[in-house]
Structures are given as structure tokens and as C-alpha cells.
Amino acid sequence: MIELICNYIGGQWQESESRAVFRSENPANEALIGMAVDSSEQDVAAAVAAAQAAFADWRAWPAPRRGELLYEVARILEERKEELSRLMTREMGKVIVEARGDVQEAIDMAYFMGGEGRRLNGYTAPVEMPNKFGMALRDPAGVVALITPWNFPCAVPSWKMLPALVAGNAVVWKPAEDVPAFSAAFTQVFADAGLPAGVLNLVLGGGETGAALVRQPGVRVISFTGSTETGLQVYQTAAALGKKVSLEMGGKNAIIVLDDADFNLALEAVTWSAYGTSGQRCTACSRLLVQNGIAPRFTAALIERAKTLQLGDGLHEDVQIGPLVNGKALEKVGRYMEVAREEGVTIAIGGQPAQRQAGHFFEPTVFTGVKRAMRVAQEEIFGPVLAVIEIEDLDEAIAINNESIYGLSSSVFTTDVNAAFRAIRDLTTGIVYINHGTTGAEIQFPFGGTRGTGNGMREAGLTALDAFTEWKSVYVDYSGTLQRAQIDNR
Ligand code: ADP
């Protein structure tokens, strides 16, 4: 008998009041992972009510104790790392080494945010009047809603959940419908660490469940990671209701390889940035801007390198590229092959689903002869597809990078220190790498993008706290008299 993957509301694992369910499948072989609860509006309301009820007590916990609970989360995650990683690979397909890295991000974040329990710094500043004191403090926002995608089932939720919790918020989490089993196992870690009932609530389901959560009057903040289309819908709904929103959306990230680059280093970095996680990372490299002096040799080497990549079930340690997450993703990537043909692009390698008995595999693909304004150079494909654009020089590459509607990650390979610093100054993405691929952010630095990638908020680093806290300015007047500031009514 397959066990039902349930919601976690007010400290109880529960079915939907509607009894509706959906399937979770292994994308490598289409085997059933489990049936999961498809939450209704009422389930979502119950989760928000549970969070509201738990908030006052959780907020009153001394922050250092909340931080210690996060250390316990980190410890349990370390203990269960292999088990969680294997479940992740089975449920969404990324290869096992990447799944381990995904869980490790949550461990790192739990230690980092656990430490914030003893900081959560506010500040004091001098004030204008004698015998008066001023300070600014971070207050928790209240009940926060987290809506997350399937491509980083552990890292992305942890980037949101851990800062939200240490700051004293109560959470309702709606993970992607492709990863219910993993999300339940991750939630269990917090329960086992001793998080009080109702402080973290899990509601499983699809887009309608997410939309219901955004609408809930009790939700003050929404932190969303996913597609641009959905993110903008969430933004509009939330704006009309006066809620705070943090958005992380699409990317169309470029690696610039100049003629003087370390050839092999750049080749490996481009390969893994483009094809790691089958290109299904918001920071994946989907545009190679290669200088014309080395372009023919570099592109030829890249095509040969892509041919060597081992596709298969990510549980096997020697497999390098797993499947796409589901049939819909496979169709979407396939449609871009039509777009490429219509635009007159050469599909130098790949261009079709990989022939296998089951699963949603797509061959690593290289497009050559791409021009900067083409759809395949502008739109996020979210698959193992790399568009090669030849450039004259760094200035042209920077202009191409910066004209994208997205602005998440970019990278330059060069041995010229002057070119490297010009690139750091002039690239307008939220993350810039020098002599490193476009992926691999570390949790202690802000993560996020400019332009259409986000709405100015950042995750990770200490900046993560900004989404989940309100500043409170406090003035203490110990003069015992009515001073001028009060008379001026400022
Ligand atoms: P993807 O195309 O990568 O699956 P989505 O943006 O559709 O990305 O999904 C990201 C998250 O947003 C998922 O948890 C999904 O269920 C949720 N979601 C989808 N549609 C909506 C919506 N209209 N309102 C709120 N959340 C949604």
C-alpha cells in the first residue's frame, strides 16, 4: 500500500478536507513515488490559522533559543543527508551529487541563520534631543507564505524558511507539486528538531493552492521562487492586497569567454553551467558569448565535450545528466527546437529527447549561429540547451548580457585583470563570476537578480532577513519634560 503524502498543519499530518490527491513520479523511470494531498482553499485557511495561533508564542521565544533550534535542524539534516538526497533524486531527477549539494545548502543555511539568533542586529544612532535614546529593531512580519519550485527542493525553501523562522515568523509553505515526498521529509526534520506545533505548516498542491495562499488575509509576506509568468501573477494579486512580496524568477545567464581565457577551465565551466541539473537551474548558463578569435575551436571542443556526458538515472554515481522534471518540461524544451529552426539557427548537437525506454530525457544541445535578438537568445528555455553567440570584444559581450530582460548571473573567463575588473563594474546582473561558471552561489552572500529576475529583494546572506522583518524605530525620552521635538510634532 502506498502511503499518502500529507499536509502538516498545526503539528499534525493530515489529509485534505476534500480528499483530493495527485501523483508524484520519478522522472527517470515514471515509477510512482506516492500520492499526495491536493490542498483546497479550506486546507490553506486552516494552515494560516494554525500559523497565526502559533505566532505569538514563537515570537516570544528568545531569538538565541530559536537559533539553537536551527542548529538542531542542521544536525538532523546532516544525519539524514544521504536519505534525503536519494529521495530528492528519485522524485525530481537531479543526479545524486547535486542532490547532496542541495541538502548541504540547507545545512549551511541552518548554521548561518542559527547564528543570527544571537545577532539579528538592529542599530542605535545619536538623537537630536538631550536625555533621549533611539534604536531601530527588527520585528517579525507575522505569518509568511513560502512558494517554492522543484529544481532546488531543499536549498530554495531553506533560504526562505530559516531566516523567516529565526526572525520569529510563523510559516506556511507550499512547495512545488513535483516534490511532495521530499517536502514532507524536510518538514519532518523541523518537527523532530522540536519546532512548536503551527510554527511551520506544509500545504501540498499545485498552482491553485499557491494562489489561495497568496489571497489569505492572514498572510503578510509572500516569498516566491519560480517562473516569471507565475511570479508576476503573485505580485499583482499581492499588490492589490497590500502585501509584501519577494520574488526570484527567470534567468538567461551568459558566460563570456575572451580569447585570452584559460581554454580548458572555461570549457569545463561552460559544460557544467549549461548541462548540470539538465539546465534546470535559474543560474544555468544558456548563452555562451565567445570571442571570435577562439570561437571556432572553443565551440568544436564544447560539442565534443557535450557528446561525452552520461545521461541516466541520477541515483547511479557515474551518471552526469538526469532527466527533465516531467513530460511538460520535455515538451517545452522540444518546442524551442522548432523556434530555433524557424530562426535559422544550427542545432549542432542534440535537439531531441534522448531515446530511452522511459523517463523524460533530453539530449544536451548546442545551438550555433545564434544572433543576440533571437528568441533562443532571449527566452528562458530551462533545459540542457546552450546558445552560442560570437562576439568581437568584451564591450559587445557586456552590452548583450545587459540587454536581457533578466539579470541573475553572468560570468567572464579571461586572464586579463583589467578586463575582469571592467566586467565586474559593468555587468548588471545580481551575481557576477570571474573565471567560474554561472552557478554555485554561497549562502552568506545575497542571491537574486536585477530587471525581470526579481523585484529588488534578495535571498540568502543577511539580506534574507529583510523580506521577513519589519523595522521598528524606538525612542525613549528620559528627560521628564516636553521637549522641542514633541512640540514641533515631527
Ligand atoms: P515552474 O514553471 O518552474 O513549475 P511555477 O512558477 O509554475 O514554475 O511554479 C513555482 C511555484 O509556484 C510552484 O510551487 C507552483 O505550484 C506555484 N504556483 C503556480 N501557479 C501559481 C499561482 N497562480 N499562484 C501561486 N503559486 C503558484
Report what the structure shows:
By secondary structure, the protein is an alpha/beta fold. The strands form six sheets. The chain has a seven-stranded mixed beta sheet with strand order 15-16-17-14-13-19-20, sandwiched between helices. Strands 10-9-8-11-12 form a five-stranded parallel beta sheet, sandwiched between helices. The mean pLDDT is 97. The chain is globular and about 80 Å long. The longest helix is centred in the N-terminal third of the chain and has 21 residues, at 96-116. α2 (63-79) packs across α6 (180-192), α3 crosses α4 and α9 crosses α10 (295-307). It folds into two domains: 4-249 and 454-474, Aldehyde Dehydrogenase, Chain A, domain 1 (3-Layer(aba) Sandwich), CATH 3.40.605.10; 253-434, Aldehyde Dehydrogenase, Chain A, domain 2 (3-Layer(aba) Sandwich). The protein contains 16 helices and 22 strands. The protein is 39% helix and 21% strand. It binds adenosine-5'-diphosphate (ADP). Adenosine-5'-diphosphate binds next to α7 and α8.
Describe the sheet with the most strands: 7 strands, mixed
Cα-to-Cα separation, first versus last residue? 68 Å
- What is the gyration radius calculated from CA atoms? 24 Å
Q: Which stretches are low in confidence, meaning pLDDT under 50 for 5 or more residues running?
A: none
Write a brief structural summary:
The protein is an alpha/beta fold. It is built from 16 helices and 22 strands. The strands form six sheets. A seven-stranded mixed beta sheet has the order 15-16-17-14-13-19-20, sandwiched between helices.
